[in-house]
Amino acid sequence: MMFERNDEIRNQIWEAVSGLDEDQLNQKPSPEQWSIIQVLRHLNLMENVITKQARLALEKEQNVSIEKKPYEMSLDRSRSVEAPPHVQPPTDPEALADIRNDLASSHQALEQFAREHDVALLRSKSFPHPAFGEMDLAQWIDFTSYHEERHLGQIQEIKQQLGL
């Protein structure tokens, strides 16, 4: 099942933030770091962009064959990549209910996209990743779970820094 890992990591994220109040979720460990809410918003923005780009990629006539990229390396939190501006979260505090709704919608949209299309078709279309280069759509869907797992580590780190 293609989307199982995505669901599993998302559930771990919700477990990690359960019991935290809005003040704690919106608190930054330092001015240059993100709050937990900002991390969650970033995940929502990423899922939206990936789904949108994947839909556009399907419209391309050209078929590709792309070797597997080492996107599991994104779990290595010692290597940091600045998020592109369009997936950087706003700095204003946000309500968890809003983020939860938006994340449920973006997750559902990506899952529906994954289920609607045959894996062979997903492997034949691609768009570029800023760090890993051209990735086919099946890789993008899988990458999303690794991206979220990376940020689950960040959420745990923020909780530790804030003493939560």
Describe the protein's architecture and organization:
The structure is a single chain. The chain is mainly alpha-helical and 164 residues long. The protein has helices at 4-17, 22-26, 36-58, 96-116, 119-123, 137-162; strands at residues 126-129, 133-136. It contains 6 helices and 2 strands, in the order H-H-H-H-H-E-E-H. Helix 3 (36-58) packs parallel to helix 4. The mean pLDDT is 95. The longest helix is centred in the C-terminal third of the chain and has 26 residues, at 137-162. The radius of gyration is 16 Å and the shape is elongated. A hairpin with a 3-residue loop joins strand 1 (126-129) and strand 2 (133-136). The protein has a two-stranded antiparallel sheet.
Q: What is the gist of this entry?
A:
The chain has 164 residues and is mostly helical. Helix content is 57%, strand content 5%.
Rg, Å, rounded: 16 Å
Structural class: mainly alpha
Query: From N to C, what is the helix and strand string?
Result: HHHHHEEH
Number of distinct beta strands:
2
Treating each run of at least 4 consecutive H or I residues as one helix, how many helices? 6
Strand content: under 5%
The percent of residues in helical segments reads 55-70%
- Summed over residues and divided by their number, the pLDDT gives a mean of 95
Low-pLDDT parts are: none
The order of strands across the largest sheet is 1-2
Distance between the termini: 35 Å
- Major β-sheet, in short? 2 strands, antiparallel
What gross morphology would you assign? elongated
